[in-house]
Amino acid sequence: MSYLRGRLxxxxxxxxxxxxxxxxxxxxxxxxxxxxxxxxxxxxAKQGLISQAEGEKIVQGLEAIKKxxxxxxxxxxxxxxxxxxxxxxxxxxxxxxxxxxxxxxRSRNDxxxxxLRLYLREAISDTINALRGLESNLVGQAERNFGIVMPxxxxxxxAQPVLFSHHMLAYFEMLERDIARLNDSLERVDVMxxxxxxxxxxxxxxxxxxxxxxxxxSRVSANSIDAVSDRDFVIEYEVDACLCMMHLSRLAxxxxxxxxxxxxxxxxxxxxxxxxxIMPQKKNxxxxxxxxGKTGRVYGHLMxxxxxxKALPLSYNRDLQEDKEGLFDVVDTLISTLDILSSTIGTxxxxxxxxxxxxxxxxxxxxxxxxxxxxxxxxFRHAYNIVGRLVNxxxxxxxxxxxxxxxxxxxxxxxxxxxxxxxxxxxxxxxRKCYGGTSPERVQEAIARARxxxxx
Length: 456
What we know:
two-stranded antiparallel ribbon, 3 domains, mainly alpha, Fumarase C, Chain A, domain 2, single chain, Ribonucleotide Reductase Protein R1, domain 1, 4 strands, Fumarase C, Chain B, domain 1
């Protein structure tokens, strides 16, 4: 069997076969296509649309085909339009003309919609598992390096001291939102479209709820036209993937910065670094750099499918064949990036001395000095200006704040007293004990909460 010709009298040109065939990429839908076909065959037999014996024979043939493909023994013929026709043609070869009964009461339009939903349901589960793996390594670093102080940044300038563990847990929170979005998207994926036919429904006495139960869907589609032309669920996954890749790119950027000699906060394990072809001293953070680069690739696929869908009239159009390659690449890119970054984060060495040294630079306790004055009755804005002038005075003399004498402090405000020297990195951290803050007490609680979420 070659391309379906129907009313067309001439054989399709080979250039058309090469241009329109989706088999080179949609073959990977075979387990989902076969699962859907088995459920469909059982429904046809249950409804008396085919005999029980025919149904059993079809199911056995489909299971044999699945094994052939998984074992690498299936002959994918170039003239087969897509994975659906490749499987159907092989089914007829194996069991005879009874295989042709399988397509009763369905179209390739609702068949591919079903396959994509089955595929994405599994892809979402795999993505969440990969996210959990990275989360676990972030929390592991927070646990192992608890108590290490590092400079916190705004505008990539020294801002206030924070615990390294607190910084790691910021990414945990981002990934938790990614997981929540993916779980939420499952509600839109969890719709069984088979029975919609080409666009108008089918004329046979089918049991759509039976097929939904067989395949683990909670409900069936309510409108046959929408069911075969809807790709919102594909777009939604790609939106979620873009947000997740953005988070990963931010983490990757910090890995690149922190592993540089200018920061010297971490060392990437040799197994997850590369070197230069000409400079033997180099240790390059290529994994992190590629994660940044692949983020743009995922963004591109989202724009492609949004552009694809924006002007399609209802219902099915062949343009929709272009939804798969981008989706497959988004899934593959996101999961592989999560896995490789997880290993990179899990094995990196944190350089405590370097972090603490940098946290002691740059007048990082200036805000705490302003707060000190506020607690003694000064308005914050006035206190802000006082400390700003004080910092400028210290800068001009090349002194740190703790090297200033009490008399020098009192030149700027009589509210300064001897206890101003009790303001340290440790006291600054401990003071930020509001919920969500960087105090050791709160960060310990946050680590425990994160560990509970991972263990559930």
